[in-house]
Amino acid sequence: MAEATDDRLRLLIERIERLEEEKKGIADDIKDVYAEGKAVGYDGKIMRQIVRLRKMKPDDRAEMEMLLDTYKAALGLG
């Protein structure tokens, strides 16, 4: 029984290690795409912000933008 448990644990750890490697590869690919965008004149920070906004639900995004506008107006930035 212990041997089967040890094998199962080893297999799980190996899967995690493979997935971590894939994640690193994907992160490197994403970094390259941002660098490509920057090379053709796009702002990387703004691109990241747009990606973050697109991940949000429309209602959450609208609420955040409303609050941001309120805060900007209160600080005389708007």
Poorly predicted ranges (pLDDT <50, ≥5 residues)?
none
Query: Which oligomeric form is depicted?
Result: single chain
> Which descriptor suits the 3D outline?
elongated
- Record field, number of beta strands: 0
How many domains make up the coordinates? 1
Termini, distance in Å? Answer: 67 Å
The radius of gyration over CA amounts to 22 Å
What is the helix fraction of residues, given as a range? over 70%
Total helices: the number is 3
Overall mean pLDDT stands at: 96
Amount of beta strand: under 5%
Can you write the helix and strand succession as a string? HHH
Major sheet summary line: none
Structural class, by secondary structure, is mainly alpha
Summarize the topology.
Blueprint: H1 2-39, H2 44-55, H3 58-74
What does this structure look like?
There is one protein chain. The model has no long low-confidence stretch (mean pLDDT 96). The chain has one domain (2-74). The chain is mostly helical and 78 residues long. Helices cover 86% and strands 0% of the residues. It is elongated and about 70 Å long. It has helices at 2-39, 44-55, 58-74. It contains three helices and no strands.
Q: What is the gist of this entry?
A:
With 78 residues, the protein is mainly alpha-helical.
Task: Please tag this protein with its features.
elongated; 78 residues; mainly alpha; single chain
